[in-house]
């Protein structure tokens, strides 16, 4: 038996609770992992609260991330005792996920845990931090370097934003953080490496097709009007990486930034990213993440608190990262 967050939808009514489940209830897969730590990302919050149709079938154990130790394997790459982590691949959406003490998954979805990071630290990074690194790598791949100019990070106090600020600042970029919680989060964001903190209000309302050029690059986890306004104020030849939709899935923009200023809008997908890109991101994270700052931006909760914490996350009341001790 193992404990898990369990979602079901009888009579079209979402029910979320902690349940003891037998091992034979686990879905098919060629690797059984004893989970040590998981985490709450925005997508997990949507799944647990039902605020968006993230879950594709019920019942479901949510949790798009986990880190743990292989307990049994029929996959040639993995042996019992191997330390592994997982991000995405539809886990927690269409396949039972990591907010549980055990997970059975396809071995092709797993990565070896970096030797210098604990399971807890890997989950403090989680999909949010891994996505942030994918954004940083994309900026550099498109030619936005530390001396190119200012880089804007929207949703800065959230998980993706917090890690992105830290990574960009470490690489020498001048980072401007956009948040709706300036008074509460300003000191926190500057501590992560933001050179300036600005109010998100200037991006959240409908704007003009083009605005004053400022950003050499941007990491946007908000979408909607925010993303449109960021594109409209990005400098000639700049790059905007889009990785989230906290403000909405729509994009009320014009083509003006792209055809008049040569702006690049780079989509960042962490769920189905190919293995070489995942490995490159985690290798860079293991080498560059400041674990002291990571600890400062992380709050640890037991499995039983994952459900109420999901509601806090969706309400914008969570700063930084939430790590779940599934065995507490």
Short description:
With 328 residues, this protein is of the alpha/beta class.
Distinct helical segment count: 10
The profile of the biggest β sheet is: 7 strands, mixed
| CATH architecture level-2 label of the largest domain | Alpha-Beta Complex
Number of strands: 15
Helix content: 25-40%
Reading the helices and strands in chain order gives EEEHEEEEHEHEHEHEHEHEHHEHE
| Secondary structure category | alpha/beta
Can you tell me the CATH topology of the largest domain?
Quinone Oxidoreductase, Chain A, domain 1
CATH superfamily of the largest domain: Medium-chain alcohol dehydrogenases, catalytic domain
The overall pLDDT average reads 95
Shape: globular
Distance between the termini: 15 Å
CATH class of the largest domain: Alpha Beta
Output the radius of gyration.
20 Å
Can you give a write-up of this model?
- There is one protein chain.
- The two termini are 15 Å apart.
- α2 (119-141) packs across α3 and α2 (119-141) packs across α8.
- The chain has helices spanning 42-49, 119-141, 159-170, 182-192, 201-204, 224-232, 256-260, 275-288, 291-296, 306-314; strands at 2-8, 15-21, 31-40, 65-73, 83-87, 102-105, 111-112, 151-153, 175-179, 196-199, 215-220, 234-242, 264-267, 298-302, 321-325.
- β8 (151-153), α3 (159-170) and β9 form a beta-alpha-beta unit.
- It has 2 domains: 2-117 and 289-325, Alpha-Beta Complex (Quinone Oxidoreductase, Chain A, domain 1), CATH 3.90.180; 128-267, NAD(P)-binding Rossmann-like Domain (Rossmann fold, 3-Layer(aba) Sandwich).
- Strands 3, 4, 5, 6, 7, 14 and 15 form a 7-stranded mixed β-sheet that branches. The protein has a 6-stranded parallel β-sheet with strand order 10-9-8-11-12-13, sandwiched between helices.
- The protein is an alpha/beta fold.
- The chain has 10 helices and 15 strands.
């Amino acid at each position: 038996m193992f404990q898990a967050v369990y979602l079901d939808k009888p009579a079209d009514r979402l029910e979320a609770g902690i349940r003891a489940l037998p091992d034979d209830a686990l879905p098919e897969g060629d690797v059984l992992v004893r989970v040590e730590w998981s985490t709450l990302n925005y997508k997990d919050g949507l799944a647990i609260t039902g605020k968006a149709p993230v879950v594709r079938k019920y019942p479901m154990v949510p949790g798009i991330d986990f880190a743990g130790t292989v307990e049994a394997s029929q996959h040639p790459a993995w042996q019992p005792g191997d330390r592994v982590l997982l991000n995405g691949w539809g886990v927690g959406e269409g396949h039972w996920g990591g907010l549980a003490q055990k997970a059975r998954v396809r071995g092709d979805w797993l990565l070896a845990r970096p030797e210098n990071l604990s399971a807890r630290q890997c989950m403090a990074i989680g999909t949010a931090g891994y996505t942030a690194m994918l954004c940083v790598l994309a900026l550099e791949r498109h030619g936005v370097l530390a001396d190119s100019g200012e880089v804007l990070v929207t949703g800065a106090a959230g998980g993706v934003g917090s890690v992105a600020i830290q990574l960009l600042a470490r690489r020498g970029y001048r980072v401007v953080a956009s948040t709706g919680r300036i008074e509460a989060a300003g000191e926190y964001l500057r501590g992560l490496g933001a050179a300036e903190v600005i109010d998100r209000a200037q991006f959240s309302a409908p704007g003009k097709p083009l605005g004053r050029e400022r950003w050499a690059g941007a990491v946007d986890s908000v979408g909607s009007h925010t993303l449109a306004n960021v594109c409209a104020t990005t400098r000639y030849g700049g790059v905007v990486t889009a990785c989230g939709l906290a403000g909405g899935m729509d994009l009320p923009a014009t083509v003006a930034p792209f055809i008049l200023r040569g702006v690049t809008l780079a989509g960042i997908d962490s769920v189905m990213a190919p293995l070489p890109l995942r490995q490159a991101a985690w290798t860079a994270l293991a080498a560059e993440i400041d674990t002291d700052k990571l600890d400062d931006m992380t709050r640890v909760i037991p499995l039983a608190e994952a459900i109420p914490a999901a509601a806090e996350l969706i309400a914008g009341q969570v700063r930084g990262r939430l790590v779940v001790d599934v065995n507490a």
